[in-house]
Amino acid sequence: MRLVVRLLATAAAMVLSVPLAQAQQAPIKIGSVLSVTGGASFLGDPEKKTLEMYVADINAKGGINGRKVEAIIYDDASDPNQARTFATRLIEQDKVDALLAGSTTASTMAIIPLAEDAEIPLINFAGAVQAVTPVKKWNFKTPHTDLMACEKIFEDMKKRNLTKIAMISGADAFGKSMRDQCMTVNKKYGIEVLHEETYQPRDNDMTAQLTNIKGKAGVQAVLNPGFSQGPAIVTRNYKQLGIPYPLYQSHGVGTKQFIELATPAAAEGVRLPAAALLVADKLPDSDPQKKVVTEYKKTYEAKTGQPVSTFGGHMYDGLMILVEAMKRAGGPDKAKVRDEIEKTKNFMGTGGVVNMSPSDHLGLDLSAFRMLEIKNGDWTVVN
Questions:
Q1: Strand-strand pairing, 370-375 and 378-381
Q2: For residue 381, what are the β-bridge partners?
Q3: Average pLDDT, the chain
Q4: pLDDT tens, position by position, 286-301
Q5: Closest Cα partner for 64 from 311, 328, 366?
Q6: What letter would DSSP give residue 36?
Q7: E strands present in 151-224
Q8: H/E stretch holding 307
């Protein structure tokens, strides 16, 4: 009788151990909603490629604490409504453990409330400050903010004694946000905004607005808060009109595609704040960021055959921050992972050194930005 009981107990233990073992070996699911196509594809496409490349690499090296990683990626086609739909699917149907999602500000703002309600860690890739401020418990971000971009640009203008400017801003979520952020700090840097113009996301000519700026007395420089095709059109029209003042763009154009669309001749002399990734090969060996940015650049360009952009770098940083948090948490437990992301310290990423805290879910300061100038169709560092 004892033998029968022992056999039954052993059999029961074996049966119970099967689902337990299966659960332990189940892949960690990372959900991603990106603008792979549509007007913001220059953001989402390199983000998707980066995620796929590095998840494959992580799995080849044994995964996270021995568990494989599964990336579930949906393309929102640059539509915030689609972003909301796909994020809901990832949370409710795919049962993902964390989210790396939101290529644009508009898409990100649609996803954040879903992550908060579901209590699931989210690292987003939007440019605007409202994508991380005010701090929300489950939401984090890797790109520099538009407020930081305004301050970096105004610092440079002040050094060049350019204190009276005009702005031509995109009417999209990012363009509006950056314009508003610039207007909160311009006086801090002694910058006076003499004139403002705007354009719509689908406008294909900004000659009229730029003609108004050209005719405005006293203007010494022009700032264009915007992303997508708008800044390239502004840059071309700017050259065509022969406007003599320096032109500044936002960090929303940190890709070689911008130079190509604007044309190298028109983009010559344009300045913008960006991550060190764009000038990886131009950094001195003593620069602490050089190793990470050169390695990412080399890997990305070798595997995709495309020039590196800061946007793929934002995904790299987000994925690595998440992976390290999951390792420290001992697995994908959402609450523990959230806490570990918030504890991220001295993470050397493509965007800079990240030091997060309960009051800062970005963790970058102004030193993470480099001021760049386009010369001969390429990025150069402004000293």
A1: antiparallel
A2: 372
A3: 93
A4: 999 999 999 999 999 9
A5: 328
A6: -
A7: 164-170, 192-199, 221-224
A8: none
**Selected residue with higher pLDDT from 96 and 22:** 96
**Residue 4 pLDDT more than 60?**
no
All domains of the chain in start order, with CATH: 23-144+290-364 (3.40.50.2300), 147-274 (3.40.50.2300)
pLDDT digits (tens, 9 = 90+) for 140-160: 999 999 999 999 999 999 999
Q: Using CA atoms, how far apart are residues 260 and 378, in angstroms rounded to an integer? A: 10
Kindly state the helix (H) or strand (E) to which residue 332 belongs, with its residue range: none
Strand residue runs (E) in the chain: 28-34, 69-75, 98-100, 122-124, 139-141, 164-170, 192-199, 221-224, 247-249, 271-274, 347-348, 353-354, 370-375, 378-381
Single-letter code of the amino acid located at 39: G
**Over residues 90-119, mean pLDDT:** 97
- Sequence-distant contacts of 84-91: CB under 8 A, at least 24 apart: 84/110, 84/111, 84/114, 86/33, 87/31, 87/33, 87/111, 87/114, 87/115, 88/114, 90/31, 90/32, 90/33, 91/31, 91/115, 91/118, 91/120
Distance, in Å, from the CA atom of 300 to the CA atom of 304, rounded to the nearest integer, reads 6
343-359 pLDDT per residue, tens: 999 999 999 999 999 99
Whether the bond between 134 and the residue before it is cis, its omega within 30 degrees of 0, is yes
Rounded to whole angstroms, how far apart are CA atoms 19 and 184? 56
> Is the alpha carbon torsion for 201, 205, 208, 210 positive or negative?
positive
| Residue (of 209, 255, 269, 251) closest to 233 by Cα position | 209
Q: Are 108 and 101 in contact (CB under 8 A)?
A: yes
| Rounded Cα gap, residues 245 and 251, in angstroms | 20
Question: 354 and 317 in contact (C-beta within 8 Å)?
Answer: yes
Burial of 24 (0-12, 13-18, 19+ CB in 10 A): exposed
